[in-house]
Design brief:
It is built from 6 helices and 5 strands. By secondary structure, the protein is α/β, with parallel strands linked by helices. Helix 4 packs across helix 5.
Amino acid sequence: MAENGNGAAPQAAPQAQNNYDMTWASKVTGKYRMAFDAPEVKGGVSLHQVRSFLAGYTQVYGLKAMELSPVLIIRHAAVPMVLGHALWEDGAFGERESLKDPVTGEPTKRNPFIDIPAGAPHALSWPDGALDNLMERGVIVLACDLALANTAGQIAARRKIPRTDARQLITDHILQGVVRMPSGIFATCHAQGVGCGMMYAG
């Protein structure tokens, strides 16, 4: 059985009893495993940390991304990071976090952590460190469902639409591949249970 960087063996996973997709846990198979707890956007610092984890083990040991198991847990105020451009169009998320459009440098009305054009002068991440790029490299991304529900309430209030409609917008525009968990606390605890170390990325 593989160990994490601290020598701890992962625990056997119980059988899920609901609709939450727990198959991500079976993909935490790398010799080195780390969960990054991101409760705040903070300019995307959590993405830098995940990229640095991958880059460090590549530089030191020559390991490939598939040989490592980073888990990024997006919760609390950071959950807009996992939402598509359509939910950023009113500018509220960008204004709240003082985020700029990667290309224009204006207050962003798009998710600045995905779909970043090459050479974008105001990009917040390295070319291989944007959220969508990290996911393509095998990074597991978990999102707190409680925080997503709270964000749906904010969207409903701003757009003056029923909360159920806002919740559907969240469902329709969460980034493909992001796995919802009942809470960020559960996600961080379960990641540790399958052998991950923990780094606070707030």
